[in-house]
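Batch job 17 of 40 flagged for manual review because the log was empty.
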Amino acid sequence: ANKDIFTCVVMHSVVATNLENLQLLEYLKYNDGSGVERDLSLATWNGRTVLVDDDVPVEAVAATQTEAAYNKYTTYVLGAGAFDYCDCGAAVPNEVYRQPLTKGGQEYLITRQRKLFAPRGFSFVQPTTAIMSPTDAQLKTAARWALVKDSAGTGYFDSKAIPLARIISRG
């Protein structure tokens, strides 16, 4: 029902290469000042912008009696509003620092910002002890994430409104 909200695809280079070979991945082009058409390193797949990143999950599947070993590649499809963002602010957002003995006196303006990014419809569950910021290991733990309750607090956020999808393929 919401297929038009998906706008971006993040995939492994093996998947991108296979789509190129099938002529399903199309690279964007531009004309330079001399009128020469050049390829950009940005592609589209069915009208969705493609980001190629070899850090997406790849799982090796062992061979069985009936099947040879292969890899399972995860591709993520994201839509507008897939992630919420807010500026958390900092206790001391700006300050001036001066080193009088360096180069006849050098002044620095220090600016701090704290931002929060979170997938829409999910909430990070704090460990038993309060933390300032979760570690990468805590963020990777599925048990640390829970669906957000709806505004009435009686049910959960409509999962169809979350513009995140995952495709698992052999490449």
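Reviewer: the log was empty due to a logging misconfiguration, but the result itself is present. The chain has a mean pLDDT of 87. Unflagging and moving on to job 18.
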